[in-house]
## 1
Amino acid sequence: MRYLPKSPADREAMLAEIGVASIESLFETIPAEYRLTEDLKIPRQHSESEILERFRAFGSNVASGDALELAAQPAGKLFASFLGAGAYRHYRPVIIDSLVQRGEFLTSYTPYQPEISQGTLQAMFEFQTMICELTGMEIANASMYDGSTGAAESVLMACRVTGRQGAVVARTVHPEYREVLATVTKHQEIPITEFGYVAETGRVDLAALDAAITDETACVLIQSPNFFGTVEDVAAIAEIAHKKGALLIVSIAEAVSLGVIKAPVEADIVSLEAQSFGVAVGFGGPYCGVIACKEKFLRQMPGRLVGETKDTNGKRGWVLTLSTREQHIRREKATSNICTNQALVAMMVTIFLTVYGKQGLRELAEQNLAKADYLRKALVDAGAVTKFDGAPRFHEFVLTTKESAAAVNAKLLEKQIVGGLGLGKWYPELGESATLWCATELTTKAQMDAAAKVLAGARAQELVGVK
């Protein structure tokens, strides 16, 4: 659309306006022998990511050979990676860095005098609006450190809202999120009770959840898609939590999943990690956490909230409607001690969502689904066994192999492939061979086939001598 800005609907509207039925009718005055009736014999169009790959390949092989041939070759010794687990590699449109590196965005830290920072405030307002549309919530802040601190702050928020002290947390929530939560609540005297999952599906155990909630439970914290990649039944979990007066917090570590998965509208609070929306995976940061919630919980929500207003001349403007942080108000009145600002990272998210749009985000999510399904089938054909097949999943899945995760990953690494994440550290009941695999739109068919070939070779070695 960048180079052909008129959509089919635009063209139909233009033709209708001038009273012409079709493009062919528009050009019928040109003799037929001079009209083009077939496609031009030129290479097919390429996406932005494909063009960049061609440039990289050409740059690394510029000394010799035909440019188009060289462009098809791999650039350097890049490793294929099938890691996910809360840090996802998605394509970042080049426009993101072109805009966020402008001085007025890159150098701004925080709007201490918000009324003269209208550009920054508008960007934050647009960010909040898009997050609300994605999550189905009424209010969103801008923003938190990351998904882990967002989940922990959501639990503290739920305790303030309900007046209760206690949280029930699913074991299928990201293990590192649970570690952060334990650290944050340790000296708050908020007891944390964990409950398990169903072995066949990887979904939370509803019976165990029901038994874990008490009269002192402020909230239930789940993740969907959960750490295993499985999509939870949010409505059923919400019914159990609300029946006993507890709030439901849904943590979302993979934001792209919202392109195809129904928003968790039954939740009271949504904690979202927005890293997938245009934020590069960079050795642990920066990330972009968000809390979104029902409007009635507004005054207990940590972070900034930008609102729309009008000035004395009636012109549209933006203000910091709410900032319940110790940086702005008396410490004893603050809802959070987090006082940094992720506005620049939130800007990346805003640009990403603006570029992709609703339909683009859906198509992106569908690509991720398709890639993960191909990868899963290829690895199963190579001898691996998938777990939790009894429930829907997004672009991650758990599989087991005959050899340990460490042994399999060592063989993959020899072929410049980073395999799945070993789960034995956090889920010993799954065994030492259980790994979590992920595929995104950047995962190529060649990479997936190469990983399956390594697994198939390992399987063949195991079968030597077996009749």
Note: The chain has 14 helices and 15 strands.
## 2
Amino acid sequence: MKFLLIFVSLLQFTTFSIDVNMIRKAYKVAAHDKTKIAELNKLLFSVTKQDNATLIAYKGAGIALQARQKKTIKEKKRLFIEGISYLEYAIQKNPNAIEPRFIRIGIQENTPKLLKYKSNIEEDKSFLLKHYKTITPKVLKKQIGEYILQSKSFSDKEKAVILVPK
């Protein structure tokens, strides 16, 4: 019984010790470099649906990115659905968390139309714009701001919201 208790404690410690800033950087790199997707997924291996919404969302995004590398349509679809289920679960778990919505809009914007995963873009745009000024940490705010500025989903007027002096 002691062994089980120690094992569970170590497992939880491992999950809590995941550096979110490292995950953010790894995700940003993996989204643009398919050779880095495995590294991202390795960092997120121990994350479960019992963890915080941000880590769950990144795990889902990592799995969804992995789908791009599979050869068969069946395997691509299976991984994409698995990844999206983590992401949607993270948003259900904490609907007011900004990072899962940031991740979702990035995935929805870059998903082919045939997958029919684009229904929350407007909702997530509004959420990000509404909460942009209150985003902490600064590194996340910068990452989201950079994303908004390059995104085709945001109008020039919407992009101006984040260019207002702080």
Note: The chain has one domain: 18-108+118-163.
## 3
Amino acid sequence: MVLGLRNQSSVTTFILMGFSEYPYLQVPLFLLFFIVYTVTLVGNLGIIVVRRINPKLHTPMYFFLSHLSFLDICYSSVFTPKLLEILVMADRSISFKGCMTQFFFICSFVITEMFMLAVMAYDRFVAVCNPLLYMVVMSPQLCALLVAGTYMWGGLCSLTITYSLYELSYCGPNTINHFGCEYSALLSLSCSDTSFSQIVCFIISTFNETCSLLMILASYVFIVITITKMPSKGGLQRAFSTCSSHLTAISIFHGIILLLYCVPSSKSSWLLVKVATVLFTVIIPMLNPLIYSLRNKDVKETVRKLIMSKLHSQLTSLK
């Protein structure tokens, strides 16, 4: 189809298959994903609240972390509620516009998070390699600019890819072998030439993945060089502890992205695609607050004080 023409799609509604091929797993999966989603919301909202109420956490690192938590809430909420719905409801439909909207937001949030992790790597580089000037270099203005840039870039890339999908024709069938409007699943339903959309997606995906990984790699190369020059073991341990949580989050996030890239486009691989997407959109958003809070003394101390204060107020009211 020639770019610029209006979408001639005859399909107005898609049917999401989800995990319907395993009917005996519908209720257990619903309960599992509901618990995970609840933990995701509580954990990430907790990170945002804790950062706001503790003055010690009003630093660039926690500013970026609070935005990472916000992104986790957002892109988990794009897919998970619909996934929970189709697991227990007979109606598995989603409108064409709703499908495109879902794809736009999931793509936008994922790209934004990809570069947010890269920005956090740069933040760790400044903190370890230039600690005395850390607060000067990572000024509030620069932090706000970096965060705004990641959101704008994520939105622009997602808009471009979504537009390339929207311009395709969808003549039927209208059954998506997925629990959400994932790119390859949508592409497989098109009855027009998909080469332009595939080229656009390949260029944007490769550019974003390469750039974000290079930014992270460059930051950590300088961090390792600086760490190796530290004379004391105490300084080495502090430097490692300040980076370990971020490295864990990066490894999980990009590991699953690369897994999705490597999955072959065949009918036999759809289950693997769905499982990898579950890990990416449902499990990762739950893990990030656990990774950062369990390894961070300031976060754990703030949470402990909140719990103790709540218990004290309840005991006082009972007396």
Note: The domain at 13-318 is CATH 1.20.1070.10 (Rhopdopsin 7-helix transmembrane proteins).
## 4
Amino acid sequence: MIEKLNSLVDDISTLNSKLVLLIGPPRSGKSNLLVQLAARRKMRVLSLGATLGGELLTVPSTRRHLQAADIFRDLADDFASHGLLLIDNIELLFDKTLQVSPLELLKRHAHARRVVAAWPGDIREGRLSYATTGHPEHQDYGIDGLVPFKIH
């Protein structure tokens, strides 16, 4: 599977939006696959929850929604290497108080560089989802502008 992902990362360099989402249930190996890809390419994986969360703790809660996207951009610049950014643990982006669209934020960064991110949700009938319907953080998206990489 790592061979297929590694090849895909090279292949997407010519696309307008260079976003690959690793999609699979919890404990399906998304994080492990990112770690393997990082090792092959001699780079680091941005663990967004811990890193962005730590940065946001220094910002007053009333201003976090104003600075979340800028802090994310700075972290992405720090972790990107050779035109590639690897991201894991993106659940914090779904926090409603941050007022960001997780998928749109990832897509925006995928215009400038290739982005491979672990998606903590599911894909069904051409729709990408996070959390179950009725959950306060539930999100549902079309898959335009991204390359799904399903892990079983």
Note: The chain has five helices and eight strands.
